[in-house]
Amino acid sequence: MTCPTLPRPGVVDPPVLLAPLAGFSDLPFRMMIRELGGLGLGFTEMLHPLALLRGTGDKMACLTATEPADTPLAWQLYGRDPELLARAARVLAARGARWIDLNMGCPVRKIVSRGEGAALLKTPDLAARIAEEVVRAVPGLTVSAKIRLGWDDSCIVAPALARQLVSAGISALIIHGRTAVQGFKGKADWNRIADVVASVPGIPIYGNGDISDGTEAIERMKSSGCTGIMVGRAAMKNPWLIPEIAATLQGQPVPPPPTPSEALAFALRHLARTSALYGKGKGAVLFRKWMPLYVRPFLRMKRAEMVALMAERDADVLAKQLAVLCPESVEKDQAF
Length: 336
Description:
Layout: E1 5-8, E2 11-13, E3 16-18, H1 27-36, E4 42-43, H2 49-54, H3 58-63, E5 73-77, H4 82-94, E6 99-104, H5 109-112, H6 124-137, E7 142-148, H7 158-167, E8 172-176, H8 190-199, E9 205-208, H9 214-224, E10 228-231, H10 233-237, H11 241-249, H12 260-278, H13 280-286, H14 291-299, H15 303-309, H16 315-323
Helix pairs in contact: 1-12, 4-6, 6-7, 7-8, 9-11, 12-13, 12-16
């Protein structure tokens, strides 16, 4: 599979992006996805400029953790203060960041209540000023913005906002096909994503929302005119979706789904990476969120088994308990 490259600002190859997922897209998960292949661009979790500029504490160290193989990587900032965001972008640039992404689409209440994230959809002039200040602060870097269609159905601003952001110097846009009020309910509207693409021709635009397989990714790209696809929650449930989409887009054979033993090995490596970053105790606790997502479905765990595992607080013990769940009666070449 083609190695990820950045041929020009805002363009990635393969054109498959892993969304910035608060609480999930940390270094361990990004590296597990990269291990599978096909990822064109990863994103950090959302970073607030004040916390980044203070730069202290284990939490910030884990949020900003990376390594040489964790590339290409976009660093996502959120906030509503243009000058503060520009300062934070300069700090990231000094650390070696080559891509800065501005979150203008997070619908979480505590974020929007401060006028941040998706609340910027209601203040497009401020959003454009933020983009302008950040672009000016980090010349030579790719600066993108992740937005939604609008605040609600009566406030669809994405096409007009896209034009403002491009005028401010944004190199690429990521469009989630829902409004802020929708959150993650209902269906992503790819027709409205197409409207955004048409509003700013020539700018790389990545569509996000409800992509479940490689065939659907191709169909959505063709119908909307998007440059590529961003995958979010679906990758949390099925990490193998990323290489499937990349292979389909590149006209290559789709990798077979993992066998139970392969899924188990993947889960154990993920747990080991999590423990290495956070420590064995915290690592075991943080890994609980993955149990009902991809671990249980791929290993066909019973509910009682999952409940027992989620009570474990030691990563070494958890790894041993997980290891016995791989059904020995299933042939190694028999996929789900």
